[in-house]
Amino acid sequence: MKVKSILVSQPKPESDRSPYFDLAKKYKLKIDFRPFIHVEGISVQEFRKQRISILEHSAVIFTSRNAVDHFFRMAEEMRVTVPEGMKYFCISESTAYYLQKYMVYRKRKIFHGKQRFADLMEVMKKHKQEKFLLPCSDILKKEIPEMMDKAGFHYSKAVLYHTVCSDLSDLEDVYYDVLVFFSPAGIESLLKNFPDFKQNKTRIAAFGPTTMKAVEEAGLRVDIQAPTQNAPSMTMAIENYVKEVNKK
Predict the structure, then answer these.
(1) Which of 6, 133, 184, 247 could disulfide-pair with 214, CB 3.0 to 4.6 Å?
(2) Domains of the chain, start order
């Protein structure tokens, strides 16, 4: 079956240069974006129950923009002035530049990896004497604390926001040829919103082994996988699939 419509379970890209838009134009596809999950910040009262003091740490690790937003939100709500000497370690260059929303970038000690947490760890090893704060959601990837424990870092995990399922009830009677998922939480949201969901001819694209596992455990079928050797990105995996099925 040819692919004509795709729903990506993420927010619409802010940049017009997104490869999704190139894909839509090249193959005359209808590509929509809709977050299947969203984050909600915890209250100051909830944070205090974790018995963590921001000022007892000399460095902060940011694995996402959400972590950045909720760290500074919590600091503001608790009336904590983050010291200028605080060091920031960001998962990627784009996350590092996002800090400009909250500070004068060139005046701060900011470090970043290439995209993977393992890359950031190599940067952090040069600052092993620091006491790190790891702002995160309630569904932090388990390999992150595992890697930090193994390397012997001194750190505190601070849950500052929860990942929750979005309301998708308006999509009940809408059909797409392909549904694109990037996390197990997206699959959870699909099944929570549509407990009687039947895959039938709908193709499912899954990014990463944990997402693929969640699809299979839900009794569904993975039709498009990424990353692979031939398709390191989701857009490349979709293009390879569309190229094959749409030529028939």
Answers:
(1) 184
(2) 5-36+166-218+227-245 (3.40.50.10090), 40-163 (3.40.50.10090)
In tens, the pLDDT along 143-169 reads 999 999 999 999 999 999 999 999 999
**DSSP β-ladder status, 59-62 and 87-90:** parallel
Say if strands 30-33 and 154-165 run parallel, antiparallel, or are unpaired: unpaired
Per DSSP, the residues of 15-69 read STT-HHHHHHHHHT-EEEE--SEEEEEPPHHHHHTT---GGG-SEEEESSHHHHH
Cα distances (Å, whole numbers) of residue 160 to 51, 82, 131, 178: 13, 16, 18, 33
Task: Select from 171, 159, 206 the least CA-distant residue to 186.
Answer: 206
> Is pLDDT of 248 > 70?
no
pLDDT above 70: percentage of residues in the chain: 100
Model confidence pLDDT, tens digit, residues 83-107: 999 999 999 999 999 999 998 877 7
Find the mean pLDDT for residues 19-42.
95
What is the rounded distance in angstroms from the CA atom of residue 141 to the CA atom of residue 131? Answer: 20
The pTM score is: 0.77
**Cα(123)–Cα(125) distance, integer angstroms:** 6
Q: Give the 3-state secondary structure of residue 80.
A: coil
Q: 159: closest CA among 145, 139, 143?
A: 139
Please give the single-letter amino acid code of residue 29. L
